[in-house]
């Protein structure tokens, strides 16, 4: 099914010891339910998260380098240690120059070479700064901005649609013509997480803005610029004006609002100000005649600002962002200043992450699937892939049965839903074909240059898709990523190997627990093909309304009911979860958990699950689900998540259980308890 992994066998023969990484063989978490982490003084019907995780929350301290910590972080830490060991093994392997093994090792060791980075100072950045300083007119500004366009955002899967460049690019299947790729363009350019950070008049946001201004000032001083405070004020003012024209996070998540096809000629009339032909020329987008502009109002407003704001302010803005963008591979003073704002202020961390962890991130970003080959060869045996594929098949079957038995959906809509489910392509563990990195040049000792070339390589790789046949086998996550994703246009799912491990997926515990944890994740991602956005796409990936009017009305009513349910959750006084912003994820939680529950029951073939650790099968299922969302978050990080993330915070994800009838008898939940919903108020989307 995929190429042999034998060229990477060198990884397996080297001890798992990495400089800067704690010694010893990384081990997986214990199996089964964590009984000691539960708080049984809390009634499940009042707070199911606290019932399943309350003692763990009380006794757990968030690490100083984190804004949050939980089971996902534990699995990611284990994966990072394993990955670091594999990378270090590559560095020690004395592989031939230019080989994938050598590239991995050179990329990582170059990043870890802090003395060399310190000795170079800001000299690697100087060619970029010189190009910025040479901007002498508006056309030159457009040409420079074109060189900053990067493939760093996925408009259909991003959680906050973030790019630190003025505009972002994603090359993906066209929503109207699914047989071809299209270039998607979207807003960017802010140094703060989202427009509300600039515009919210609250005292808390005002304090963050003051600290951001101090950060911009400090960074301009590191660049050696005179009158840094005055120039920083102008940069922040420019970003504030940019924020005013940005689309909101809710609107950015609306597929129908985002699917705007502009011809090349449209840009001059719909977004005057920027010399678009000059921009497209240096962005190497000379050939495409049609673009998908995801936030048209932002493009109109941002383009106008390129003509209205002085070139000197734009140059200061670009210099600041160039320094910020490459802060990880520049001297310690830049790293420390970046942490002081983005780590301390925005996330509440009190110390930076260890450098080796960033080294793993950098290497994964540059050569992710090369590292992924080694990871699956060592940590994802064929038996686990087969077991995961079997679970996927069971949950898909359960989801199909749920569709077929819906009493509110017409036969015509059911047939199209089943057809879409039948074409779903599910990738488990790793891609069918590995990416080719032969064109990526990695130079030992050149951390800055490696980061630049890797980013450029990924951009060109995406540009080369234009005009080519659609590749539905492509992955957007590496195998060593602890996450999963639904690609609605491709009607495809990725379940990386790294999430298919304990405590999410564990062959040493009862299978019902796997259904409650990874099974719910699988069901969640399948359900995204039928959430408020996914349900807009037909089996071919075309943006096409395949619902009857009556069916769509029922679906939208259920969605509205779920919006109200999540709007009622209030993590901080006056700050509620945004039910509309998180709707797609909440629909997927409800439908995915229901499908996983059905699949678990079907897997028993009519038998009762054995009592384990004092809990029935249904109790094991639901507690496993709640413990899979175990997380503790600092206030600054939680506030940021509520404002910018399309996912509800982890503490509120287990509340999904209140919509499943089976949860009530499993825990004796009665009217009057906080989470109790009358049968008619329980949301059943699918």
TrEMBL record:
- Is the Methyltransferase keyword given for this protein? no
The protein's required cofactor(s) are namely: Zn(2+)
GO BP annotation list: protein processing
* Claim: Phosphoprotein is one of the keywords in the record: no
A Pfam family found in this protein is Peptidase_M13
* Residue span, Peptidase M13 C-terminal domain: 483-682
Q: Where is the Peptidase M13 N-terminal domain?
A: 44-431
Full protein name: M13 family metallopeptidase
* Organism, scientific name: Candidatus Geothrix skivensis
What lineage does the source organism belong to?
A: Bacteria, Pseudomonadati, Acidobacteriota, Holophagae, Holophagales
